[in-house]
Amino acid sequence: MNPIFTISNTNNLNGYSYDEFTSQFEKICEDHIDTGRAKKFAFIVYDFHSPIKKILQDMGAFVELDRLSGKNITIFYLDGQLNKKVNKQNKLYENLNQIFLSITDQNIKKIPFIVFFDFIDGDIENFVCYSVRDDYKFILHDLTKAISKELLTMNDQSEKKTSIIQSLIKETPKILYTEFIKLVLKDIIEIKK
After folding, report:
1. Which among 37, 59, 151, 179 is placed 20 to 30 Å from 119, CA to CA?
2. CATH assignment of the domain containing 96
3. How many domains are there within the chain?
4. Is the pLDDT score of 20 beyond 70?
5. Which DSSP string do the residues of 50-107 spell out, in sequence order?
6. So what's the pLDDT on residue 103?
């Protein structure tokens, strides 16, 4: 779990500009991949006044989501502060939510939701979205269910890649042996000529 604070802790007025936020976001993704802290990423998209904010600030829920995602998925979310002078923060939430709503083509029409994605060579790819009910009783359940499903999908894909590699390894000696025999036979035939 990786909160992104929209307001500086020192004076409560300095929010990230959109450019600062995106550059930090990219750097975090690159660092997490390079250091083995994540294979995939997610963003919890929600309205600032949603009950999700309370869930994400609950230490027990935070720890549960963090442990579940482990070193496989880094989960981002905006963490702002309730304050009367938060126009920049509200705009950041609105902009980010609109961006995620526009790039998801999986029948997600409204927030809240969680979107999973890959970060490949500086690009965000392979979006998968799950709706989250905006009801305090169901939020944690919906988030853990979505993360669990995505972890299973990651494991299935990993097993498929492993089985393909294993089958290639098993076939390689046969291929090499066959090619070796052909080369030897070719040399023998050429020597006889």
Report:
1. 59
2. 3.40.30
3. 1
4. no
5. SHHHHHHH-HHHHHHHHHHHTTTEEEEEEE----SS-HHHHHHHHHHHHHHHHH--SS
6. 67
